[in-house]
């Protein structure tokens, strides 16, 4: 007789195992993790980031790194299927994966990665230095108009006694990823009482999140808050029946229609009571609603896009909930509009015409997101293709999971709508060429739940080792692509010590009002007294179209700009990372400029190392600092 | 979920330690760990605990997000009104955290007092005992 084992849903106490005490069982379950850690540490010691090629960090990571990841994945997939283990074990595996993948660059580089993170540090430094924001500032005005994230970062920096936010920003990726995982777990638990499904959903989210929006940024914070808002909405507003009996009765004269409505109602309603979160009293419900209201107000002052996503996704959820659920998207819209009309009015008055121009143009908005891969090196093309491929793969797997649920007579309307709703933002704006990434990012939590449903489509299904093997296989397929995409741009995201030294030399010696001409803005810049300098980027958009991806200035143009009396001093800085992020024609145009500079004899080198060179016009050599 | 005085008092204490470390401009990793730990967990935990949620992981998830949200709200309010100083921002957050802790402590004391009153015999019960005879010769 086949032995069956009952699956332990959320809310049921963990049974004591017969024949074994609990602690040894948990230690055995953690063996793969314990073995992976020294492999990871050894891999870090054997990695030199300066040797990276155009496929990014994966070009220099030793095999031990991947073995460590494989052990973590194997241990995790085994642990998720054993619901007799306490939640500590799957949480430990998720945390270990996050640490290995997202903390590796922070540890290896010894400094902050990604140029935009440095710019965000500069906004925090501005607040620390001046004690205010300036919504009408000409440089990076958007951050002064949505200051929430930077104000909070300034509080943390000052409280910790740090001179700037670099140390905090460096560890932002693993910290935010842990927040994301916790938020996705809340959403998953609100959608199922099968703990295996919930943990596996978190796992697939962590694997498939290649977008890289976890760096020190308002988007990362706003996203973490959005996840919790969605979780609260799913928790406090139960789903209602889609087609109640009177509606079906009305459709009786049309039997096929009535039959179809009945079937859909059974499929969508059958799971409605599957909620793994504890039941709520009316006081708790009101308290959580008040909490969600605070969170909606906070994202309105923190980020521009996330409130729009909140309105779209909360509205989608409200469609299948009772009328009181509409209060959340209405509040989200109100807070966003109120902030745009007040705190962000200076920026909105400038940006609104362009937003209105892009409204209702999804084709144009999508095309602005798709770069022309033929302009880039073979490695960059591989990374770009892989990113598109893994996005399509994750979407395909999610569809498979959705159909698997249908096979088990379940349609989760809330998650389905949550997966589709973010696409609505494509109608609004190209968001500087990043809308497609953001749509995937905001759709990923429900997609991850659907992928997990391939393995555990119901609480009665999937009780053998084959489910763990299937989880591992799906994990491997996703990780190969997502890791390539996530680490693919690290050659341009990594700033070696020489480049940081050059940037610090510039800010230390350049007097207020100076002009800084730069190959591109992709280097550690604008992190210190950023508003006191004028910047001229020779390449407008490193990943843009052919025209914007090349140096737009002749040597004569550059000399004229630098010779102008509009600035007390002028500098030209060219670095390794500026070129690493460019298209092939763009890199060639900067290399050509360097040759012209050397031939012309019109420039003097005032700082040089293997990673960066700083020039001044020979006719305008700046005064030595006292 | 255990609902003792430990956590509310710990939140209040860590808030005061944060203020002390900031005011004395102490240096070192201890200041970084204590202050950032408090700002990222303390204010939110003080208020989320009032919901008396049954699930620890959910409580902590909400607590961290609530803490950072309170930091954002306070900082934004001070920046937009031109009243920003680090001391004011940190002080306001600490007051909010201690406020939440004190509300929880107050509700615990109030609940304990009600239970004590319920256990204490009423005057009527004492009179009935007196009619049956007592040790005081009344």
Notes on the structure:
The complex is a heterodimer of chains A (626) and B (138). Helix content of chain A is 60%, strand content 4%. With 626 residues, chain A is mostly helical. In chain A, strands 2-1-3-5-4 form a five-stranded mixed sheet, sandwiched between helices. Mean pLDDT of chain A is 88; it is low at 1-5 and 16-21. Chain B is elongated and about 70 Å long. The N and C termini of chain B lie far apart (48 Å). The model of chain B is unreliable at 133-138 (pLDDT under 50). At the A-B interface, helix 7, helix 9, helix 11 and helix 14 of A face helix 1, helix 2, helix 3 and helix 4 of B.
Write the layout of secondary structure elements.
The complex is a heterodimer of chains A (626) and B (138).
Chain A lengths: L21 H8 L1 H15 L17 H18 L7 H22 L5 H16 L10 H5 L2 H12 L6 H5 L1 H20 L3 H14 L9 H19 L8 H6 L4 H15 L12 H19 L4 H14 L8 H15 L3 H14 L3 H6 L10 H30 L5 H8 L14 H21 L9 H23 L2 H4 L3 H13 L5 E4 L15 E4 L17 H9 L6 E6 H5 L3 H17 L2 E6 L3 E6 L9
Parallel strand pairs in A: 1-2, 1-3
Antiparallel strand pairs in A: 3-5, 4-5
Chain B lengths: L5 H18 L5 H20 L7 H25 L5 H34 L3 H9 L7
Quaternary structure classification: heterodimer
* Share of residues in helices of chain B: over 70%
Residue runs with pLDDT of under 50 for 5 or more positions of chain A:
1-5, 16-21
Largest interface: A-B, 45 and 45 residues
Indicate the percent of residues in helices of chain A: 55-70%
Give the CA-CA distance, first to last residue of chain A: 90 Å
Largest sheet entry of chain A: 5 strands, mixed
Taking the sheet with the most strands of chain B, its summary is:
none
